[in-house]
Design a protein that fits this description.
CATH superfamily of the largest domain: LuxQ periplasmic domain, N-terminal subdomain
Strand content: 15-25%
Number of helices: 14
Helix content: 40-55%
Number of domains: 2
Structural class: alpha+beta
Shape: extended
Largest sheet: 6 strands, antiparallel
Length: 597
């Protein structure tokens, strides 16, 4: 019998049969104990969920206490309490904007959902600023209402906990405001816990499942509702669903009179890996004896092959560690000698290639770093250059002395707006996160503001901008400064494309089933097909000394961040139309689209 046949027979007799027997015995043992271990794991996971909820409530209580004791918040509320009706709207808006930035930073640093700051107005507290989710934040709170204890609201998507605290002036001790933090124990929160603890979770409240990643838990409702009253203790059970048996652990919770229900953790009833490993270890004696016997026979009949394999294995490990100088018995005259010589030759070639690869990698890393630095610097320069250009134009007109007092005030306000926009841009660049705070706003005033910024340049070139009325009720959810930058880039490109004295730029809005469209149309020089194919590539520009080629590339990135798109239609010597599509919010019903003449 050949060696290969004898080795196959030995493996079948000494390894396969006892291993199959051991697995069958282990499966029988694990089936009995798997349920208990699985229930223990579910109980532990549920305890972690309960602890996370309690820790979250405690963390929110500490956060609102620190915020109420903050000198910055107290100073703001003290000023609002004494001078709210005396300060101008622009001053208040600017001061509230600073407060909003501080609160957004605090919200991110403390991982909070919502912060609301209220001021005193008569017998009520009225909101000054709300950051985060404001869906269930009250617009007015009686001064006699706050108790300092958390309030809970049960909604269709979960439970909202509101933590409140009055703010007193640190010197006078008078009541100057009110704070509210709100945490949503909703679908998103429970999904995060389910992923964090790797467990299926279900929340049952007021006769409905507010959230469930546990299949078929509704079919178990009659079982646990009948056997487990609202005692607050843990309970467990099983239920069939889709041909499988599921195990669950639950408990009754009551956060407040308006927030009570059942929380479950569970999953398919099965053998856990840990229990299988422990059982396999206990039952591995017989298989190990069989393996040892097979090893002895293998050594007796295949020692030469084993030694050769071990030599090559050791050599391959050294090569894997980067050691290419090998001590192999290449002087042998048999097949293994040829294999050793070939392996040694391969190692020498790998050593040579590794040296070349390391040098290439070093050069590539250096090149990529320089390219990344150049791209980042160009992007920053482009973003800052646009508002600086507006500021420069307005400053030159202010220095001319030809403006009326009203025009000077208007131009100074525009300069102040653009300087603040540069400040916000630089502040955003210092953060590593790409996330921006979205809000609802009407796009038409933003477009009108951008057109006003271009008024000096438009007058100089003799270009008319015709801003046609937008549909009633047109609203965008996004970041105002980012969308304003897109409008600025498109209007700048349109002005640059006009080289005659009858220039016209039309801006109008439309609404259809796809979303909200805002279009910028000019009668400039237009583009050919070859140019249009590259307009969204960074650094591609036809303006030799007047652009960086980043405007449309950055605009497309911003539109994608807002879930929208940008389309360009152009014809040489006719003009260009750039269309921005913003997604339609659920429930938004703007008036019929305006068809431009």
């Amino acid at each position: 019998m050949k060696l290969r046949a004898r080795l196959l027979l030995i493996c079948l007799c000494a390894l396969l049969v006892p291993v199959l027997v051991a697995i069958a015995v282990a499966a029988a043992v694990v089936v009995g104990s798997g349920g208990r271990s699985q229930e223990a794991r579910f109980r532990a996971a549920l305890e972690l969920v309960r602890k996370d909820i309690a820790d979250t409530e405690r963390r929110y209580g500490l956060s609102i206490a620190r915020l109420a004791a903050s000198g910055a918040v107290q100073r703001k509320l003290y000023v609002y309490d004494r001078y709210w009706g005396l300060l101008g709207k622009d001053i208040l808006d600017g001061d509230v904007a600073v407060l909003r930035d501080d609160l957004e930073n605090y919200l991110l640093s403390e991982s909070l959902d919502t912060i609301a700051v209220y001021r005193v107005e008569g017998e009520n507290f009225v909101p000054v600023v709300v950051v985060g989710n404001s869906t269930y934040i009250r617009n007015s709170i009686p001064r006699s209402k706050p108790s300092g204890r958390p309030e809970y609201l049960q909604t269709s998507d979960g439970i909202y906990a509101t933590f409140t605290m009055p703010v007193f002036h640190s010197v006078s001790g008078g009541l100057i405001g009110f704070l509210a933090l709100q945490k949503a124990f909703n679908r998103s929160y429970l999904e995060a816990l389910s992923q964090k603890f790797n467990i299926n979770i279900a929340l049952y409240a007021q006769g409905l499942y507010r959230y469930s990643s546990l299949p078929g838990i509704a079919s178990a409702g009659a079982l646990w509702a009948r056997h487990h009253p609202a005692t607050g203790g843990l309970f467990s059970g099983t239920y069939p669903f889709a041909g499988r048996l599921y195990r669950y652990v639950g408990y009754y919770f009551e956060m407040g009179q308006a927030a009570k229900g059942y929380l479950f953790a569970g999953g398919p009833s099965s053998i856990t890996p840990a229990e299988w490993v422990r059982t396999f270890t206990r039952l591995s004696i017989i298989p190990l004896i069989c393996v040892a016997l097979a090893a002895v026979l293998f050594i007796l009949w295949g020692s030469e092959v084993i030694r050769a394999i071990r030599s090559l294995l050791a050599a391959s490990v050294k090569v894997g560690r980067g050691e290419y100088r090998l001590a192999l018995p290449v002087e042998r005259r048999d097949e293994f000698g040829s294999l050793y010589r070939g392996f040694a030759s391969m190692a020498a070639k790998l050593e040579e290639d590794a040296a070349k690869l390391e040098e290439s990698k070093r050069l590539l890393v250096t090149s990529e770093r320089m390219a990344a630095l150049g791209s980042f610097s160009a992007g920053v320069a482009h973003e800052i250059n646009n508002p600086l250009g507006v500021i420069l134009n307005h400053v030159q007109l202010l220095q001319s002395g030809k403006l009326s007092e009203a025009e000077r005030s208007e131009f100074l306000a525009r300069v102040d707006t653009e300087i603040k926009r540069i400040s916000r841009l630089l502040r955003n660049l210092l953060h590593t996160s790409d996330e921006v705070a979205f809000s609802d706003f009407a796009p038409e005033p933003v477009v009108r503001e951008v057109v006003q910024l271009f008024s000096p340049k438009l007058q100089g070139k003799g270009v008319e901008v015709r801003l046609e009325p937008f549909p009633d009720g047109l609203s965008i959810e996004g970041h105002v400064d980012a969308v304003k930058q897109v409008f600025f880039n498109l209007l700048y490109n349109a002005v640059q494309a006009i080289h005659h004295d009858h220039g016209l730029i039309r801006v109008f809005g439309q609404a259809d089933g796809a979303g909200f469209w805002i279009r910028f149309c000019d009668n400039g020089e237009g583009m050919d097909q070859a140019t249009r194919a590259h307009i969204f590539e960074p650094f591609f520009t036809r303006k030799q000394h007047a652009g960086t080629g980043l405007g449309l590339a950055l605009s497309r990135k911003i539109m994608r961040q807002h879930g929208g798109s940008i389309e360009v239609q152009s014809e040489e010597n006719v003009g260009t139309t750039v269309s921005l599509c913003f997604p339609m919010k659920e429930g938004a019903c703007p008036s019929a689209a305006i068809s431009p003449s």
